Structure formats: C-alpha cells, structure tokens
Amino acid sequence: MGVAAAEPRARMLLPRGHTLPIVLAILLALLTVVPVATVIVASFRPSGLPLSDGWTLAHFAKVWSSAYSYRLVWQTLVFAAGSTAFGIALAAALAWLVERTDMPGRDFFRTGILMPMATPPLLLAIGWVLLMSPAIGIVPTLLAPVFGEGVKSFSIFNLPGMIFVQGLAYVPTSFLMLAPAMRNMDPVYEEAARTSGAAFGQTLRRVSLPFLVPALLSVTTLLMIVGMLTFDVPAVIGQRGNVSVMSSEIFNLMNPANGLPAYGEIAALNSTLFVLLALGLWVYYRATQQSERFATISGKGYKATRFKLGRWRPVAAAFVTLYFLLAVVLPFLALLWTSLVPYFAGFQTKLLGELSFKAYATLLGQPRIWEGVVNSTVIAVVAALATTALALFVAWTIVRSKLRWVRVLDVMSMIPISVPFLMMGVALVFIFFGLRAVPIYGTVWIIALGHLIVFLPLAARMMQSGVLQVHRELEEAASVSGATFLQNIRRVVVPLLKPTIFALLIWLVVHSLREFSVAVMLIARQNEVLSTILFSLWDQGEPGQAAAIAVILMLVLGGLVAAFTGLTRARQEA
Amino acid sequence: MLAAEALEKRFALHDGRIVNAMDGVGFRIEPGQLYTLLGPSGCGKTTTLRSIAGLETPDSGRIAIGDMAVFDSARRLLVPANRRKIGMVFQSYAIWPHMDVYENVAFPLRVSGERVREGDVAARVAKALATVRMEGFERRPATRLSGGQQQRLALARALVMEPRVLLLDEPLSNLDAKLRESMRLELRRIQKSLGITAVYVTHDQTEALAMSDVVAVMENGRIVQQGDPRTIYSRPATRFVAEFIGSTNFVPGRIARAGADALVEIEGGRLRCAVPAGLDTGARVLVSIRPEDIAVRAAGAAAAAGDGNRIAGRVVEQIFLGSLADHVIAAGGAEFHAWCHPAAAFAPGSEVVLEVDPARCIVLPEKA
User: What was the ipTM of the complex prediction?
Assistant: First the structure.
C-alpha cells in the first residue's frame, strides 16, 4: 500500500477551479467593459460611431469650448450633491428614529419604509408636477382660496424643486444602507464610552458617529453617482423649467428636432461623465470594502439600547408620517385624481361630480398599451431571471474561489454602477445598430439586456452577502459526501439561498417594470414598454391617460414590494 | 491505510509575508487507527486534514488513501473531494438546515454515481442513525437539534457511505464541557467498533491523549513528534511538546556528565536524568519535570527509598484547586509548580525538599 498505487479516474492539476471564473470573466467583459469601451471609442471617431474610421479630438474640443457645457456640469453637480445631502439627512433621521429610539409605531414604519420603492422617480416627479404646477397644480388651486392668488406663482421647475423630489426618491435606498449600520452597532462600545465618563452627546460624536462613517461614505458616493446620471426627475421637472443637466442634455442630443443625432458630442459628453463617475466608483469601492470590515467587528444579535424620546415621541411620529405623505401618499393621490377627472385643472370641487374611469377605458382600448404590458412583463421576467442566475454564479465565484484574480470579476460586475443608464442605452445602440449578426436592435431583448447590465452591480452585491451567510463547510460537506459541482449548486447552494434569490427576483422585476432611462434610449416601434408609453403620453399632453398607467403601475409595484418586504423579513428572522 | 509524504503548502498573507502551512508533513496511518493531529491554531493541522479531504490542494507532495493515490504533485494527479470516498465531520457540523435528519444522512447516497434504490437508502440511513443512537429522529428538521444531536447527525452522515477513512475536524470544540467528555468516549467507541481508520484534528491535548492510538504534535507546519499518547506525554522530544502537552517545569542547566545515567548541573545542585543521545558534556539544556512527578517533603524528613534527586526549596505560594494543591516553590534557581494531595499541603514560607525520580527528569536541548 504505497503512495505510487493505482489512481482511478484522476484529474490534471491545473485546470481545476479555473473554468467557471474564466467563462464569467469573458461574459462580464462583454457585458460591462465592451459597452463602456464602445462609448469611449465613439467619442474619438469623426462620425461619432464606434465602428467608423479615423480619430479626432474635435468632439471634445467642441463640447469643452462652450461655456454651456461648464454650466451643465455645475448644475449636474449641484443637483446630485443637493439631492444626496437632502436624501441622506432625511434617511439618517428616519433610520435613527426607527432603529435607535422608542418612537411609537417604529415597527410599522420599518416595514413601510420600502413602500416608496413602488413610487419610482418618474412617477414621483409626475405626481409632484401635478401637485405643484403653478396656477393649475392641485396644491395651488387648493390653497389659493385661503392664501390668495399669490401662491399660484410658486414653482418647483427649478434646481431646488428637482433636488427636493430626487431627495425624496433617495430615501428608501439610503435607509436600507444606514439602518443596518445603526441596528448592528454593538452597544458595548457606547456603554464603554458612557462608563469612561463620556456624556450622551460626546458618546454620539466620538463613538457612534465614527462607526457610521463607512456606511455614510458608501451611501453618499452611491447616491452622488446615481444623481449625476439619473434622467427621470430632470426629464419631468427640469425640462419644464429649462434646467438642463448632463443626462437631459444627452437625451436632447439623441432626439434632435431634425437631422441625425450628434453622436460624437454625445459620446464626448458621456466619456467626460464616465471619468468623473469612475472616480466616484473607486471611492465607493474603497468605502464599501471598509464598511464590510466594520460589519465584521459588530456582528449581530445585539439588542441596542434605545434612546428615550420622552415628550418628543409624537413629534417624531409626525415627522415620519410627513415623509410618507410627501413620498407616497400625496403623489399617488395626485395621480389618482388626475386619472379620474375629465381634464386637468388642479383641484376643483365642481370636478367631483365628473369623476369617471374614462381615461382607463380609453387607455385599455389601445392595442399599444397591451403591447406595452406584454413587453414590460417579458422584459421584467427575462431580465430578472437572467440577472439572478448570472449574479449567483458571479457572487459564488467571488466568495468561494481561492484564485486571487477573481477580484477582477468583482470590479467588472461593479462597472455598470458608474455608467449612466442613458449612456448604457446609447452604448447598446452603438453596438447593436451596426451588429447585424445579432439582430436584437429594436426588440424587447435589447431592453432586457440593458436591464441585465444596469442591475447587475446591485444583484451581485445582494447575492454576495447571501453567499457569505452560507457557512463554507455546508458546501464542503456536500463535496466530501460525493456531490459534484452542479449537484452542490442545485441541492445545497440554491435551496439555502432561496430567500435571497426570491427577494432579488422581486426587486429586479419591480425595478425592471419601473425602469425608464435605459428603455427610452432603446425603444423603436415594436418594443415600447409601459414606462416609455407613460412618458410619451405625458409629453404629448395626455396627463389623464399617463396618470392612469401610473396608478396601475403603482398598485402592481406596491403588491410586489409588499411581497419583497415579507421575504426580506423572513430572511432576517431565519 | 493512509499515507502522506512531503506535503508542502505556502500561503501569502495580506501584508505579503509567506506562511508555511505545511512544511514537509508526512505520516503513515495503519488500518483501524485513530490518528490525531494536535497543535495550536495556525500549526497546519487543519490544512493537513483538508488536504486529505481534497478541500485544499497542497503545493507539492503525495497522499494515498488505501491503494488509491489521491494527490501526487510529481504526476500532476488530483482526485477531487467528491471522488475520494471519505467521511468527514466538520467543526461547525455543517448540517444542512433545509433538510430533515433523514435527508441529511441520505444525501451522500443520493449524489453517489451509482443509483441507490430508495429501499436501500432507507436501510442504510437507519443503520447509520442506529450507530450514533439517533433512531426515531428521521423526520426532525435539522434546525431543531441540540448541539450533541447535530454532532451525532454529522457523524451518521459521514459514516453512511462506509468510507475507508473518517476525518474529524475539531468535532467536539463546539460542545460544552460535560457533553464533550461523553461524546469523546462515544466517538472512540464507534470508531473502535467499526474498525474505521480515523484522522482527528484538535488543539485540545486532553482530547488527544484520551482518544488517540497515535498523536502527532504539529508546530509551524511540521510534525515535531509522533507516538502513542503515553510516550508523547512522558518523553516529549522538544521544549514545545513538553510545554504544549500538560504542564511542566523547566530548569535551566548544563550537562556535567553525558550518558545513560547523566548528571545535569543546575543552580545550587545537580540532577540525575535520563538524557537522549546526541547531547554532549557541557551542552546547555532544560530539564523538564512534570508538577505531578514532584514529591514535596518537609525539610529534614527522612529521604524516600532509592537514590532520587533531592532539591531544597521554600514554598512561595499555595493554590487550592479542589482535587489538588498547587505549590509554587523556589528551588534550584527556578520556580517549580508541584502538585500534592490537598491533605498534604504546605503553608507559604515552609522549608521543603523536592524529590524527583531521575527517570522523570527529561533533558531537552535549550534551543529546539
């Protein structure tokens, strides 16, 4: 019985464990690196198309010789920074009240905090336009009899208005990132500070806040990036007041009144933006690495001591209620009202007798709507399934592989976070307009592909935290028991990740259904989706029908979000 | 039954330092033996076990289980974990929470290449559960088991395929002290009755001494001593082994006369010792004396029969530990710990004489 004995079914040493990471690396390169490279290359082409000939710097020269471009960048930065600051301040206050104080109804609020996910920025913005339009908005018409005609001139079609609405839209995401940091903080650190003689304020400033810094840093960077590339609020509110930011400028250049789009300038603008965003991504990456290190210190299972609010309890509850009014209830009521009235003229009692479902009937009588419903559903389902599957393999590989270079997969899967959704749309147009071998241009599949790419970073992150929660030995036990790689994935990994997978699927369906910025770049005749139909009806002066779609969409999304909340709770309690 | 040769594995730490997890590890385990890898954390014992399992790939070396070579770097041979036909019990037990007890045990049968009929699955699961005394728990969800039950279930799952080798990675470390003692006996009973070859990894020396046929003590990726528990305890080969297993006193000294009946010069006297070969007169050494091998007598009391070592000293402190009294005694330029029956304890300040059998004085090279 020596070492040099028979070796039934042996294997070569090197290839083992390399196949999957290499396949994923190629896939991710195609999905994330190629689109970005396409736009960058396009910005140096005289024609502005990536596959044409010649090189030039003319597009950059044109863009950066105009003072307008600098104002554009400045307005974009103000918009992004302002809405980030407003959104985080609001979310931090809410998270603190819900997680660290004895505010009444905090459990109810914690469950409800996800509901605004059903109010995508596009609908939120439309809702606020209906509420606040000068002269004919619901709020001015309601208040005018009391405060006089003066209130009718108040406008939100400016940067502060955009910042306000965008900030509201940021709250759910910020809350989701800040609340765990507050919840998981081991009170022993605070208790140690208190017993060392620190007063409450000192403890908060010197001990509690430093623990939150990584989470704050990471959410700030993420929102700054999103703010620089979001299009919904700039499209609905900014365009009305002629306040342009980079994303709306790109949209306008892609849809000129006549002639071909100025592809070169668009690409140059995009490339510039990308440099700014890549910087942001790098900061985000560093910040999240650090926050994960902090998370391992704190661990879970601690019952944090709650701050006694005393007589401020009703004030706190009122503050949280106000947020829900502004972020969900009022916009929804505005949309509902608009979908029921015969013509839009703000709130007038004489319209009460004329409410009807006519807008819904007209809407549902159009084949275009039903095509949109089918397209949206197909895209949402396909994109959600494909993204989840890809995220599962990417996350599993990143967490489990012992190869050092799999970190590249992590970086590649995060690239889309620094790419404006509009720009991803432009990139896909560039690629598939010319690529006749893969005829998906103008079909639903190009939109599904776009959604797969833009949602991949979040999906991969969510899946990574899911895989991290599965003890490595559970998989090793399966290997030792004789399970092959696929048996291991099917019988152990997937069943254990079921709550994460379901939560992610619902999250993806919700975000795919409400997504607007990618789709608006990729639609042609045959592949309109609900959000783009809604926007075009809105743009063409059919607020009643647009609002009807919005109401239906919000109800569907609300149901899905409720399911998501139920699942994430089940996962936390498991 | 199980043989490993010249296993090497290096890790690069985050700060760039290189760590030798295995630095020429080799051993042979005879059929039916319980072989223990014992050492502090980071000594490479777990890496060695995981290399046998196929969960870790050594940089070089050879491993054979029975007549099957499972790893041989020279021939670029690597059999993946799922084809090594081994049973393994993990430190965390790794019970799958989404399956009940029955499905956990049946899993290896279900994923095995050969199709096992459902009737056979049931029979083999029942047999494995009976072995670990878990009959009647088949439909219990895995999440509703106590620590000890999870431990038994993990063992049943590892045994259901009747593997040639059973690997145990600190299986008792998550149990409380009382349960650990009873599981220790139970594990040993099952292993002996099945006659299965087992490799056991632990950092707990009591566990290693109580259960093993052979103990291999590891330090910095090397096996520094291997032998049966009694030999390891009474004849440690290095200062590390003497210190890691049990408690001991070290007395610094110099060899005055080498040979079978050696003399070691210590401060204020000489000790007669058994000296391992290879140390010459004049070599600086440490003499290791176990606290339970020291007899403490009142100064002036008559010497016990024989020609044992006698060192005069003074009690510095006495600590009552229940079953024994630990005396700290200043003698021969060192502080000795000596364990006596509590009834025969000496008060601090007492002048005493320490008596030690020369066969219990282990001479170790000062640097190892």
Answer: 0.82
